[in-house]
Amino acid sequence: MTAVHRSRPRLRTTALIGALMCATVACGSEEAASTGSAARSGGAGATSGSSGAWEEPSSYTYTLVSSQGERALIGTFRVTVRDGEVARAVGLDDSGRQVVRRGLAEVPTIGMLLEDLEQARRDAAHTAEAEYAADGHPVRISLDREKNTIDDEALYVISGFTPADR
């Protein structure tokens, strides 16, 4: 029997794996360099932008879309914060209206959402990611505390942020 050498497919496979590894490493390096806060995430997810310079004003309004998981806080809300506390929340969809009927204590300030993010990072959550606007306030927070647990995810999308001083 004659031995058959199959070096070309192996070479192509090795080259493909090498190219994929380089692309993956390059993406990871770019992400870490551009965010400046990936190390703070404790490996629990990437961040975009920076939250370090932003200080939560005592009074502001924002729109919150809270989704994913089996949680009480699901829906779309227009939130007014005065003196650091939720003064008014309007449910903008059926789910949001149900939450508001139960009470304002269930609707968070942006600071409370950031505290939840930081707690998830301290707890080494599977995912604890945030994206930030140019002024430093968060525009998206994604949490998944346990990798293999169903319905423990939370996604918060923040828009229409307006400090009351404006």
Automatic annotation (TrEMBL):
InterPro entries: DUF6174. Residues 34-53 have a biased composition (Low complexity). Pfam families: DUF6174. Transmembrane segments: none annotated. Keywords: Signal. It comes from the Bacteria. Residues 1-28 form the signal peptide. Residues 34-56 are annotated as: Disordered. This is Lipoprotein.
